[in-house]
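Lab notebook page, bench 4
Experiment: in silico fold of construct C2
Operator: M.H.
Input chain length: 146 residues
Purpose: comparison with the prior construct
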Amino acid sequence: MRQGCGPGRMFAVVSGEIGSGKSMLVRSRLDELDASVLVGYVSSTQLSSDELRRAVAGAFGVPLNDQSMPGWEARFAGLLASLGAKGRRAVLVIDEAQHLDRAGLAVLDALVAGPSQASPLLEIWLVGQPEGGNCSMLRKSRPFAG
């Protein structure tokens, strides 16, 4: 698992070939989280940026339709602020992340680009194969040695 941090933001990359144990590692890490963490899961199978927005919103129960697309990042930021006020945070798992394109990565970056926090309110875990996909984060990931 490779992590990238900046003020108020966190990405983790879990990259490996088919059958290498990525899903098992992610499930194990999710099982270690306490009830204060809200988890959303999206299986990214070549989603457009609008489809990714809808999938992320649905994963966290944020109502979203065509009329509510504008400003959805603000509503999502409101959800994160509400969690933060209660001492909680969120983890978004994007499976099959190798299919994300630049527009999809921009959507995810917009979600974590909110106000800087001492501890990030949103972690995004990108899970996928390093080869045959679009996501440069997965192709550039380095092996984790524990």
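Observations: The longest helix spans residues 72-85. Residues 1-9, 141-146 have pLDDT under 50 and may be disordered.
Next step: discuss at group meeting.
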